Amino acid sequence: MPFISVIIPTYNRKKLLCRAIDSVMRQTFHDFELIVVDDASEDGTHGLAYFSGENTVVQYIGLPLHRGVAAARNLGVSKSLGTWICFLDSDDEWHKDKLKKQVAWHEAHKELRISQTQEIWIRNSVRVNPPKTHAKIHGIQFKENLERCMITPSSVMMEKRLFLEMGGFNESLPACEDYDLWLRITSAYPVGLLDELLLTRYGGHDDQLSSMVPILDRFRIRGIVDIMNSGKLSQEQNDWAGRQLVKKAEILAGGHKKRGKKDEHEFYQRLARRYRKQGPSSALAAPFI
Question: Packing angle between helix 262-278 and helix 235-258, nearest 10 degrees?
């Protein structure tokens, strides 16, 4: 049984996928399995040599219909055998000691069920410095993750049991599915930080989900509403979540008003007004998406 299961979801990224797979195969820690979940690509991804019958390390799963990254990751985990899981987006790249160092880090921090690493950002082929607002932190961080997504899927290592306990990724979300999962995890557990650059993230290309799906905050609001309705938050956590909900809903309401979208404008106005009036004790309506 492998110690770690590595899950790579991919969709029409044949060339970038090769770089991601190579970065896993070069790892100095070898007790892993690699599962590539092809979300119905149409670019010949299924024909890559990595997926030949002779390769016993790389498992290829091809979906007949495009279902989205959340479903692809969940399926990969359901087929995995490892005690721990790691995700790697098909446009990112691990440094060769990523698994080795993260496994050793967890051996020294057995109380933590999930961790991430620092990362290098490449945007349009140029290295850039992440803004200070995105600086990663160690430990309790629910409040920080409400503001913005502070955890990078490609840098994460977590217990498979934790992933399953939290219900995995929400497959009804076409984007921000990671934000939604991190809210559920950080509301209950601290997240460790291995303070080393062990991942390179590439951005700026046209097929990035964040650039293809408009108005991402509508899905973040959905995540906030869902966790507030779960009944699992403390009063303080509910207050933090409510303030972020109002902030994001008011911004969306203003944006929809400028674009002349009356129904959406009124919906987000009502959502913000309802929380301000009734507070976190009342269930909130599902967001307009």
Answer: 160
